[in-house]
Structure formats: structure tokens, C-alpha cells
Here is the input.
Amino acid sequence: MKTARIVMIGIVLAVLFGCQSNQALNIGWIGPLTGPSAVLGVDSVTAAQIAVDEMNANGQNVELLVEDDQYDASKTLSAYNKLVYGDGVKMLIASSYSGVFAIAKQAEADGVIVIDPLDCNKAIVASSANVICLATESESIARVLAEQTQGKIGVLYFDSDMFMPLVKKTFEEIHGAAISEAYDAGTADFKGSISKMMDAGVDSIVLLGYDETGIAMRQARDLGFAGRFYTTGTITSPSLQKASKGAANGSVFAFWDAPSNEKSSAFLSKFKSMKGRGPILDLASYPTYDATYALVELAGAEDVKRRAVDMPSFLGAVGVVKFDNSGAMMIAESAHRLDDGRIEKV
Here is the structure.
């Protein structure tokens, strides 16, 4: 009887451990899929799904759970609570700058690993022991714009998140004082701010925002502003270009082009097969693909930064991936110009 009991316990344990081994490794993805910042998320989630599909094809069991935060930090927190407390997620991809800071400390307390594939800087990795980043360097945007602009500059910037004020601050530290005008989420009339800049005699306008900056460009041209626009990679958004009614053409912007290698080529082929087009914004797609692989390698890590630093370098879609001692993998942006819808390197 005792032998039968031991055999039965062994069978039960085998079944339990077998179920555990077949249990999916859930990855949460939080970012903007709707709203004026959707261009930052719609291709990121596709990139994450491609990585997950590849892992599953190679015998792993990974599931991607997706939440739209509309690039709103309060919605990022709500999405975090749903994924972590509702779905039991322990690993997150977070593609919202302010949102990462909103969940950073809670993620550390909950033992949740967070990777940001959209923005990367010292502030992000310092926000929590459980937060790392694999993305374009946030401040490199400001450096690119400061290097390109000359004369008297006006800066029109979105002030309802943490990201654009950071870029504005860094730009002014490098370039010098500018005629600055802030606007809130939902703003559609920029004529007053633009008129102030024109009255001050600005030569160029730096626009730091999202799809709404297309409206601002069109309104500036309607008011008679003839100078050049400088902006961020969000100018590649079809919605922004449509709203500009051609005013975006000729703008110079900070951007990152994906390198050409075996991994990036394979990723691009699968992306086009899934979406019927290439990525709108390389920096919002290729890094997410690599970040998804890195996140799975970090599964179960107690010292997230140490594990990330010790992770062997690997060839990814962004090139060679290697985290520095802070848990960051930063990629620099460079200057590009929009010519009749085409992206040309300056």
C-alpha cells in the first residue's frame, strides 16, 4: 500500500510539472494603438508578435498579451494592473515614455521585468531595478535637431507627457534659448502660438509632438511662415502627413534607419508578409523585435540589470545587441529629410 501511495504521488508530481512546463510564458505589451501617437505602437506590437511566433515555432510556449494605453500614463498604469494582477504577467514591453515611469517602482515591488523598446536613456534605467531599455537614445533626437538648426528658432512642443519636454530642454541646452510655446493634448489650433513666433522673427520652427504637428505645419504655412520645419521621426506617420496637406514636405527630422543584416532582412520579410507593407517607423519596430527576445532571456531573473549586463551579445535586427552596465542598449538617431513622401538621409 505504501509503495502504491509513493507511485501515485510520483504520477501526480509528474503531471503537475508536465503542466508547468507546457504552461505559456506570458509577455505583456503596453503602448499606443489608437490616438495621435498610434504610429509609435502599431508596428511595435507586430514586431513583438513576429518574435513570439518564431520562438513558438522553435518549441517554446510564449503568449503575447496586448493592451492599448493611447500613450497616456494613467492608461499605462491601468493596463499594467490588468496584465499583472489579472493575467499574472511577470514580463512587460512598455512603449510609452511617461508610462514607464508610472509603473517603474510598482514593477520592482511586484517582481515584474520591464523593457522599453521605444526610448532609452539614463533616467529610464535609473527609474527601477527592474527596468531596462533597448531603443534609440532619447536625447539624440535633440542633438540631431540642434546640429541642423541655425538662426532664431521657435519650439512648439507637446506638454502633456514627459518625453517632448525632455527633448525640448535638451535641445535648448545645446542650441541655446529658443522662442518656446507649449500645447496640451487635444490642441488643434496652433495659430496663436505660431503667430507669436513669427512676430519674434524666428527663422525655423522645431515641432515636438505627434500627429497634431501636421495640423500645426499646415496652419503655419497658411499664416505665411516660409521657414523650415524640424521635428521628430513621428513625421513618418501617414496621419500626420495627411493632416499637413503637403506642409510637412522638406522637413528635417531625427530618425533611425535599421541596418541591413541577415536578421533585419528576415524580420522585414516577415513584417511585410504580416502587414502588407514595411514598418512606418523603424525605431518603433526593429528594437521591439530584439527586446522581445531579450525579455525572454531575462525570465525569472532576480537581479534584472546584472542578468542583462551578463547576457551574451547577439546579432539582432538593430545590429549587435549588448546592454551596458546600467541595463541600457542605446541607439543614436541621425538627420533625415522628407522629400515628397520619401525619407532621405541628410
